[in-house]
Amino acid sequence: MVITDYLERNARLYGAETALVEINPSEERDNASTWREFNLIESANPDAPYRRELSWKDFDRRANRFANLLLSRGLKKGTKVAILLMNCLEWLPIYFGVLKAGCIAVPMNFRYSSDEIKYCLDLADVEVLVFGPEFVSRMDAISGDLDFLKMMFYVGKNGPAYTEDCMALTGFCSSSAPPVALTEEDHAAIYFSSGTTGFPKAILHDHKALRCACMVEQNHHGQTREDVFLCIPPLYHTGAKMHWFGSLLSGSKAVLLRGVKPEWILRAVTEEKCTIVWLLVPWAQDLLDAVDGGQIDLNDYYLDQWRLMHIGAQPVPPSLIRRWQERFPHHQYDTNYGLSESIGPGCVHLGVENTHKVGAIGKSGYLWETKITDESGREVPQGDVGELLVRGPGVMLCYYKNPDATNEVLKDGWLWTGDMARMDEDGFIYLVDRKKDVVISGGENLYPVQIEDFLRGFDKIKDVAVIGLPDPRLGEIAAAIVEIKDGETCTEAEIQKFCEAMPRYKRPRKIIFDRIPRNPTGKIEKPVLREKYCQGRLVESQITG
């Protein structure tokens, strides 16, 4: 059985029922929080309804039409099709259409720059790209350098001349299931990750891994057909999509909210009767701050049906969960640990019954095994620190076209996570530190080498190192330790001005002027810098969901 079978089952059994809802709040002239629809297919009318929905039957039909479009163009089983869209009602039907055609879905990070888009498309051997209006300027910059693409489909009106109208074309395609036989061993999706160098790796998964994610999520959070899942994070991320897989398995409604303001979240929960909400730390903290500061009155919203709040993708301060439970004492709380290499969240799982262990990432998830070992692979004694290893049906097949990197992390079926951890006397796992230098800020991975390379382009900088510093809201922030050239003077404002050429989320939030220590082989001694500048690091900041 593959996950497309679940979609077809839901269309057959619950066809007229709502599968997906898209909600698009916006800022109006008076800065008040209002709601309207941003419709990629029809014109964006400020006076139009803010809400679109899709039934299970129409979901399946749209997926079939896109699959049949791909097949009509001669695409074969295993062809890579990239998806570069913001969260929208079209995202998941396109994803499932790719799978139904026997092709390999390649979700793309919507934060990628033009160069990163080109790099990842080439790395994954993508032949077809589907993208939306938010990416036109980035695609314009590289459209002439993408000769390896056979076609580009545009989701929206008045697309660039080098694209084809995706929705118009699918309107002429059959809504019947395509004649493509799929097995759990077939390749299904490529997701992107990165090592400490910042260069993305293409992570290849089969259909068995996707089905594993469905089963793990539904087992951990007990979704039934009465549940309504509020999905806010981007669907390109394994976390968001794999949590939604619980809704797919249970045949229940999900809501895609395009906005993170606290009042928007609460209004969506109220109007759509959401029962499960997955948040990132900044969103949960902003909501609590708005309540505590009097900007939001919880009595204005209907929240009685909201049963579960879970957090992941970055360090989760226990103090935040304690605050949440004071404001929402009837909520269950949960956290999951995972990697894109382990098909997202759930290989380690706290469990709603273990709130007394907040601070731990949990125990082995459903269908998963874990162990903590030394560098030779021997399990360390209880309480000692070692590297966390996971094994299960959701482990990646490989890093696509990168056997050396694959062999570094996949050994005898075990995935070496690169995260250092310890286990307490009750078997609960606590993260201690990351071997990798990746900084996780607000749920997004920041790669120090990329930021360092950019900053080295400033003519007053002699050397630079980027590390993560603990932050109560974002989990971590990127801090740039900067060494200025002899005889030069430089201010933080000058460096921040130079950084405006970088995407906002990559810009260092703190500039520190200091000497950069390097070892005899020339490598930056980042542990020395972390020890110097992270002395006040809170133990509670070491927990990753």
Task: Give structural notes.
This protein has 545 residues and is α/β, with parallel strands linked by helices. It folds into three domains: 3-259, Rossmann fold; 331-434, Luciferase, Domain 3 (Luciferase, domain 3); 444-542, GMP Synthetase, Chain A, domain 3 (2-Layer Sandwich), CATH 3.30.300.30. It is 28% helix and 27% strand. A nine-stranded mixed β-sheet has the order 4-1-13-12-14-15-16-17-18, with helices on both faces. A five-stranded parallel β-sheet has the order 6-5-7-8-9, with helices on both faces. Strands 19, 20, 22, 23 and 24 form a five-stranded antiparallel β-sheet that branches. Strand 5 (80-84), helix 3 and strand 6 (104-107) form a beta-alpha-beta unit. The longest helix is centred in the N-terminal third of the chain and has 17 residues, at 56-72. The radius of gyration is 23 Å and the shape is globular. The protein starts with a helix and ends in a 12-residue tail after the last helix. The model is unreliable at 27-49 and 536-545 (pLDDT under 50).
Q: What are the main properties of this structure?
A:
alpha/beta; 545 residues; nine-stranded mixed beta sheet; Rossmann fold; five-stranded parallel beta sheet; Luciferase, domain 3; disordered C terminus
